[in-house]
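Input chain follows. Return structure tokens only.
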Amino acid sequence: MNQEITYELPNGITLEIKREDLLHPFVSGNKFRKLKYNVLQAKAENHSVLLTFGGAFSNHIAAVAYAGKEQGFETIGVIRGDELRDKISENPTLSFAQECGMRFEFVTREAYRHKTDAAFIAQLQAQFGSFYLVPEGGTNDLAVKGCEEILTKLDADFDFVCSAVGTGGTISGLINSALPHQKVLGFPALKGDFLQDEIRNFVQNKNWELQIDYHFGGYGKVTTEFIEWMNWFYTQTGIPLDPIYTGKMVFGVMDLIQRNYFPPNSKILMIHTGGLQGIAGMNAKLRNQNKPILVL
């Protein structure tokens, strides 16, 4: 469903957010979309095991673990950072995934960089046997297909569609399904401008651009001012945001509105891509640093 942001905006602009976070209690947002056709393909190929990759607080790891449990698959998570091996109980994401039955293979950060290499995949196959491989973040052609279903006919009146960007799958689906008059804006959670080429692997349309200045220092990084802004947004709207992806996108959209980036009377749709499970891990990190936490 789309929820209107009701406080007053300048220049006749209207702003709504698509609550993809409400799709499923544990496999929410873009993870639901990305896994939909991958799970169907795994079943069609008669696989019984899903293997994927992720970091310590990965939304994707949590989603695959629960989806596997729900759909009758064993799941294996290859986790970046072998120092996490003895810290599962301290990590809400990994604890949740383990409770869902996921087995972990912890690897060094150096080894993790080779996760797409044929030799690395072959080593995992020798260790675990046959499995259906879901890429890090879930992004592949089937994931993009799922994300093409985010926009519906009811969204035709919007001039701009805005989304956070991680691995590029979600925005690729939005670009492919957006109407000719709509422009898609992506807000990368990672520092740098390297995602352009990744996205072009999945799209032909030119109706998009990336806003690369709203990462707050890089992936997983936040500032006190940003956390305080997220808490203000929640008190104003009742909409929880995650601090890694959607929160940064919404902040970016609001900032661009104030900077008159959007023409007067623009109709803007923001996509809430879920990820709320990561709040517990972020708050634990903030508490350790004696910084303000996210209030829900």
